[in-house]
Amino acid sequence: MVLSKNSPCWCGSGKKYKHCHQEWDNTVNVLKLQGKKVPTHDMIKSEEDLKWIRKAAKINTGALDLVAEKIHPGMTTGEIDKLVYDYTVQHGGIPAPLGYEGFPRSCCTSVNDEVCHGIPDDERVLEEGDIVNVDCTTIFHGHYADASRMFCIGRVSEDAKRLVDVTKECMEAGIAAVRPWGHLGDIGAAIQELAHKNGYSVVVDYGGHGVGNDFHEDPFVYHVGIKGQGMILAPGMVFTIEPMINEGDYRLYIDADNGWTSYTEDGKLSAQWENTILVTDKGIEKLAW
Ligand code: MF3
Ligand code: CO
Ligand code: CO
Known about the structure:
Elements: H1 22-33, H2 47-70, H3 77-90, E1 94-95, E2 108-111, E3 114-116, E4 131-140, E5 143-152, H4 158-176, E6 182-183, H5 184-197, E7 201-202, E8 208-210, E9 217-221, E10 232-233, E11 238-241, E12 244-246, E13 252-254, E14 262-264, E15 270-272, E16 275-279, E17 284-288
Antiparallel strand pairs: 1-4, 2-4, 3-14, 4-5, 6-10, 7-12, 8-9, 11-16, 12-15, 13-14, 16-17
Helix pairs in contact: 2-3, 4-5
The protein binds 2-amino-4-trifluoromethylsulfanyl-butyric acid (MF3) and cobalt (II) ion (CO) (2 copies).
2-amino-4-trifluoromethylsulfanyl-butyric acid binds next to β4.
């Protein structure tokens, strides 16, 4: 669709196209002619969308801060879930995992060799030495924010601590690789390089994702890749970066009984950190962490 320069912009800002996304479209069209894969307009958040996503993010970050404050040896993953549920609804949000494709609880809790999608369990007691990922997603006014953190329960082994720390550095390296008008492949390349340098493997069966107006949107954000390849990253895109890094082999299997929890095939440890970020004209803004 070609908009005239005085029409209202397609992004819903109410501004004239020439004062809003006309320049953005010109840049995208040139890149497309150069053979680049470019984002579509539905991947671009309006100021209105961002207003609600920021509110969802504030609740989500608060829920994870609360977990950070309360988590301790002897606590069950079911208790973590209850903390997240209560905090989220008390602040006017909805925990997105609850009922999502049949998921039974309000967050994911993935312990040790569990890679992701661990189901909180009232019988699962966290013990000294465990490492656990708590992954929260909040819906507010129909908008989503998604983040996860690792927690070390009491004293953990040197090896476990190093995996947790390097995985966070991998997420940060992925975020640092994001440039407006850069490439999606820059993110995966940065993560992969750091993980491999540390002797770890990168999970490829799951990735980050567009988020904001829905739980999982395009694009799929690979945590491996080649610099300069893949979709162009344009201002207005909101997506997660959430590398899962394994101590041993990258291969996984899914729990046949619950259909959700994925584990490392070799039984070694896995860690994950996740942030939701916005690409801006100048760089990035972290929305949820
Ligand atoms: N929060 C996860 C993600 O980062 C998705 C969890 S899906 C659920 O994308 F159903 F398990 F909640
Ligand atoms: Co996510
Ligand atoms: Co998540």
